[in-house]
Amino acid sequence: MAANLERKPAAGRIWHGLVAAVVLVFLLLPLLVTFLFSISTVWQDTVLPEGYTLDSYVRLFTDQRFLDALGRSFLVAVLTVALSLIVMVPTIFIVSLYVPSLEKWLQTVVLMPFALPGVVSAVGLIKLYSNPPFAISGTIWILIGAYFIIILPYVYQSTRNSLRAVNAAELMEAAEVLGAGKAAAFLCVILPNILPGVIVASLLSFSIVFGEFVLANMLVGGSYEVVQVYLYHMMGVDGHLSSATIVTFFAFVLILYVLVLKIGNRKPRTALPSEGGKEETA
C-alpha cells in the first residue's frame, strides 16, 4: 500500500516532466530553427545548415537603420513606462487609501484595454488625432498615448497588490504620528516598501511595449520606425537578417522577463521588533 502511494507521486512527476518537455520543444523549436537559419551560409536540402557564419549579426549591429529603430523602441518604452508610473502609482495610492468608493470605477477603466482590439483602437486613434488641434498621428506622442492605455492593467494590478501586502494605511498612520506630512510619508515610507512591485510593473510594461507591433505599424509605421516595424520590413528583403533580428529581439524580451521573474520572486524584507525595542530585519 505504501509502495503504491510512493509510485503515484513519482508517476505524476514523470508525466508533468513529459508535458513540460513537449511544451518547451513546441515553443522553442521555431526559435531554434530561426537561430540556425540566421547563422547558416547555405541551408536548402539538408537537415542542418551546410555552413555557419555570424555575418548576419555583424550586418545587423552595423546597420544604422536597425540601431536607430532599436533606440526609438527603447525611447518609446522608457517614456511610456515613466509617464504611467508618475501618473498611476500616486493615483492608485490615493484612491485605494482615501477614496475607496472610486476603486471599482478605477478598476473598470484600467481593464478597458482588454476589451479593445489593437486594430480597432488604432483606427479610432488615427481618425481622432489626424486633424488639428491634436494632429499627432504618425508621431511618437500618439504611440506613447496608446501604449499608456495598454499597460494600465499591469501597472494597476502590481501596484495595488503591493499596497495591500505592506498595509499602506497603517504605515501612513505611523509616519504621520511621527510628524511626516502625507507627501513625505508616501515618498519616504510607502514608495520604498512597494518598490519591488513597481519595478515588476515597469519591466513587464516595458517588455509589452517593446514587443507590440499592431499599434506601432498602424499609428506611426515608417514615419517613426521602431524595431518591430523594422523587422516587418526586413522580412521581405533579407531572410538571414530578419532571422537575426528576431533572435536579437527575443533575447532582449527574454532578459526583461527573467528580471521580472527574479524580482517578483524576491521575498519582502519584514521589520520585526526585538525584545530590546529595536527592529530586526527578517
TrEMBL record:
Residues 70-260 form the ABC transmembrane type-1 domain. Keywords: Cell inner membrane, Cell membrane, Membrane, Transmembrane, Transmembrane helix, Transport. The chain crosses the membrane at residues 14-37, 74-99, 105-126, 133-154, 198-220, 240-260. It is found in: Cell inner membrane; Cell membrane. PROSITE patterns: ABC_TM1 (PS50928). GO terms for biological process: transmembrane transport. Pfam families: BPD_transp_1. Signal peptide: none annotated. GO terms for cellular component: plasma membrane. It is a multi-pass membrane protein. Belongs to the binding-protein-dependent transport system permease family. This is ABC transporter permease subunit. It comes from Cohnella candidum.
